[in-house]
Amino acid sequence: MTPAGFSTPLIHRQWLTGTVVELHFQCPDGFRFEPGQRLRICHDALERDYSLASAPGDPELRLVVRVFPGGRVSTYLSRVEIGQPISFYGPMGYFVYRESPRTAVFVATGTGVAPFLSMCRMGVSGFICLHGAKDRAGLLYAAEFEKQAARYVPCLSRGADAGSRDFAGRVTDYLGGSLAPGDYDFYLCGHQEMIRDAFQIIDERFEQAHVHSEVFY
Amino acid sequence: MMKIYTGSGDRGKTSLFSGERIVKSDLRIEAYGDVDELNSVLGGLIAGLPDSLRPLAGDLMKIQCDLLDIGAWLATTPESSAVEMLVPFTPKKVAWIEAAIDRLDEPLPPLQGFILPGGHPAAAGSHIARTVCRRVERHVLRIKDDHRDVSASSLLTYLNRLSDYLFVLARYCNLKTGTAETLWETVREKDTSA
Fold first, then answer.
1. pLDDT digit string (tens) for A171-210?
2. pLDDT tens digit sequence for B92-141
3. CA separation (Å) from B144 to B6, B23, B151?
4. Facing residue for A195 by CB, picked from B1, B8, B85
5. What number of CA atoms fall less than 13 Å from residue A205's CA on the CB side?
6. Which domains does chain A have, with CATH numbers?
7. Interface test mutation site (partner A, options B11, B17, B21, max chain A beta carbons within 10 A)
8. Second CATH level (architecture) for the domain B13-106+115-193
9. Radius of gyration (Cα) for chain B, nearest Å?
10. Which among A17, A83, A94, A190 is least buried, having the fewest CB atoms inside 10 angstroms?
């Protein structure tokens, strides 16, 4: 299906951290997507892809955007006025949830949570979720994942508080030493280094696994 | 924002569209690698078409799109739910290519014998594409037989017809550019009499 072009107004903005903002847009008539797919924002001759965090059928499209210093599109999105339209193409991508007899393992870091949020909001449940952040404050949407997951594992690279059930280390540390052998479908979404390291571990420890990935800058 | 490379294939493995991690020497990778090669050869052919053959570009690009669909089928194991995301490869596609063959074949003189692959650069490019297409066909046949992949059957029919199309295309390119076809027997006789 050829991605179509749309224009739709921003209706809500909420800062989640000092650098991450959640944006709500009105879902344009005729726009359909599957959980895990992206849309391509067009601004000032630039195009950037963002995964949708909302579920199909929601009246609003939701994006989770990290605002980079000097990032022209992310800065624009963080400042666009309520009611002003943005232009985008979509939907795009194949990072979608696929039914299978294997256990799904969602591995998310940073704003890589967005496609998994869309899947959860669509009703996907029973998965293992490895959620990586520097500290607890960086675990975006933890409650939603905890509610839907069979097992939710916060992986905190700066270490876990004494007595907490959080895992002290990166998601890749958990994959490499703590995830029990099993028959898994891995879904990886995050920055390039995490994806690369996760693939290496999966190739070594889970040879029969299926792997789907979406990589961010 | 998405990044184009992950480094996940640096150690000789890659992921199928259906998610399995396999070595890059796997038959499926060879097969869709050949499809990629065929598509690139067609891209070169289209890029070099002279004005008199430019109207062929539309059909050739449609074939390029079909080849991307074939690559996706070859990258998907038949028992995977990812099959539902693929474009169905229906007999309609074969019917379309048969009609295209008939259109190209209509003005051609009957074959007088084996012809040497070559002539106009567009014809030579068509012959190269045809031979790559035959290699794709051989790999897909092995996937069908070795992996018991029934979806490969519909691809095989299309690929067999595409090879025929590319042969006729080569002859058509020579005809429309006023380039003579070289008969094998003619050159061989000259060679043996020398």
1. 999 999 999 999 999 999 998 899 999 999 999 999 999 9
2. 999 999 999 999 999 999 998 899 999 999 999 999 999 999 999 999 99
3. 31, 19, 8
4. B8
5. 19
6. 4-92 (2.40.30.10), 103-216 (3.40.50.80)
7. B21
8. Up-down Bundle (1.20)
9. 19
10. A83
